[in-house]
Amino acid sequence: MAGIKQISSIPTKQLNKSKKPRKARVKNQDRALLTHIEGVLCYSKPWTTSGVFYPSMLGNKCDRYLYLAYQGNLPTQTITAKTARIFDNGSQLEVRMKRYFERMGIFIAAEQSVKLANPNISGRYDFLLSHIKHGRILLELKSINTKGFEALIEAPKPEHAIQLQIYLNLAGIDNGVVLYENKNDQELKAFKVDKDTKVWDNIIERCIKIQNMLPLDAPNICTGDYFCACKEVK
Fold it and tell me: Does 49-232 carry CATH code 3.30.450.20?
C-alpha cells in the first residue's frame, strides 16, 4: 500500500511526462515508389532439398524441425522485402570484411565447401584466415542488432557455435572465431571456439538418429523457439 500512496502523491503532469512519447507519424511519403520496391524484393523460397543436413539446420535444437528439413517437408518460406534487404546487407558485410582481411594480410579463402558422406552433411564456411596467434582458423561472420549484441557476454549464440563447430571438424581446423558486427553501430565482438570432438560426436549421433527415423517415429512436437519453421507444418 505504501507504493500506491507514493504513486498517488505524484502530480498528474509528472506521471504523464514519464510515458514514452509517441513516434511522430511520417508524412509526405512516395507510397508508389515504396510499394514498387517492396514488390520487387518479395519472393517465395520453396524448400527443395532433402537427404542432407546443413550446418545452419543443426543449430536448431528442435528434432521435429530437423526431421522435416531432412525429409524436404518444410513449408515454402515467404521472403519479405525487409528480410531480403537484411540478407543483402549481410552479403555486403562479407564483401567488406573480406577486403579488411586482405588488407591485414590474413585472408586465405572464403565460401569453401566442406562435406561428410554419412551422415550427409554439407556446408560452406565463411572465411579461412591466418591468425596471428593460432595459425589457420575458420571465421563465421554474423550481423546482429544492438539488443542481441549486448546480450553476448562470454560466448556466441549456441546455434552459431554449433555451426562453426561443424565447419571446424569437417575442415580439420582446431580453432575458430564467431565474429559479430552490431548492425546499428558497427561495433565488433569476436568469440573463440575450439574444435570439440565430443560436441561433434553428439552432432553425428543426432544426424544418424534423424536420418534413420521411420515416419511413425518422427517427432510431432516442436521444441524450438517461437519462430521455428516446423510450427507451420500440421
Answer: no
